[in-house]
Amino acid sequence: MTTTLLSTAGELHARVRAGRRAVVMTMGALHEGHATLIRTARGIAGRDGEVVVTVFVNPLQFGQGEDLDRYPRTLDADLKLAGESGADVVFAPAVDEVYPGGEPQVRITAGPMGERLEGSARPGHFDGMLTVVAKLLHLTRPDVALYGQKDAQQLALIRRMVRDLNFGVEIVGVPTVREDDGLALSSRNRYLSPVERRTALALSSALFAGQDRHAAQEALRARAREVPATRARAEALSAIGESRAAADAHAVATAVPGGPAAVRAAARQVLDEAARLDPPLSLDYLALVDPSDFTEIGHDFTGEAVLAVAARVGATRLIDNLPLTFGAAS
């Protein structure tokens, strides 16, 4: 399909709209993760709707010493991928279009959630992110906006901003896209040398280890709920060769709930091993949090959670996460 490149909000507002407008916000350097977002947006907008992809490297999101200057700018390739994925428009404004008169004096503040995890590691990052998202929502005027779940804290903050400030837009989260080896797709992956990439795989490996531990615990808890852990039942199971199952069910049924701690420990073991590699992985944080406010969950937590990790390999900082559900069955 033919994709139109626009650089001003006036040009975008002048377009005739028949159906829903779906917006995918990016900083360029598009990859398959972005393509998945665009294809999902195409499905939501439908044949009569419109998909707009924004390409804007937001200076407010980069702190001192971060990679604003070396962040890849690949607009021609971005336009091609966006078109192949189903975008009608690529909106690539200049800094003056987004911030007329220079840096804005009035900004969105992310609040307490924006000071945790990524916010602690990158002070001011989420204030800058929310400010540009708010501006781009105004400039593009979408019915729905899509964001990747890889940036879980960012997605949670955007949802909170839209709710707290009464933005008339639907926010859709799209699952993380991974490469064949499990590494979450990111524009920063291209900075990794082959040996650094091998170390970086510890991020996803740690999450999968935590996920596996969580799945095993939930399965045992489900068995314990279904099979009362009585001595008579254990003896009956043992008689038919299921002594291990009986012991596991009894242990889970009588133990103090400690699922989150075991999940953290399983993930941490992988990261600790990666810290001894050459080159080593330098951990920023490993957290198991409530996605409503990104505070650490307790041992008796039930509901949706996010297992999140951030680390550096060489000069490259990477993040990743997986959603988990505790106490899914009652």
Automatic annotation (TrEMBL):
ATP binds at residues 27-34, 148-151, 177, 185-188. Keywords: ATP-binding, Cytoplasm, Ligase, Nucleotide-binding, Pantothenate biosynthesis. It is found in: Cytoplasm. The keyword Chaperone does not apply. The active site is at 34 (proton donor). Its EC number is 6.3.2.1. It is an enzyme of class 6 (ligase). Beta-alanine binds at residue 61. GO terms for molecular function: ligase activity. Pathway: Cofactor biosynthesis; (R)-pantothenate biosynthesis; (R)-pantothenate from (R)-pantoate and beta-alanine: step 1/1. It catalyses: (R)-pantoate + beta-alanine + ATP = (R)-pantothenate + AMP + diphosphate + H(+). Its main location: cytoplasm. Homodimer. The reaction proceeds by a bi uni uni bi ping pong mechanism. Catalyzes the condensation of pantoate with beta-alanine in an ATP-dependent reaction via a pantoyl-adenylate intermediate. Belongs to the pantothenate synthetase family. HAMAP family: PanC (MF_00158). This is Pantothenate synthetase. It comes from Streptomyces purpurascens. The lineage of its organism: Bacteria, Bacillati, Actinomycetota, Actinomycetes, Kitasatosporales. The gene is panC.
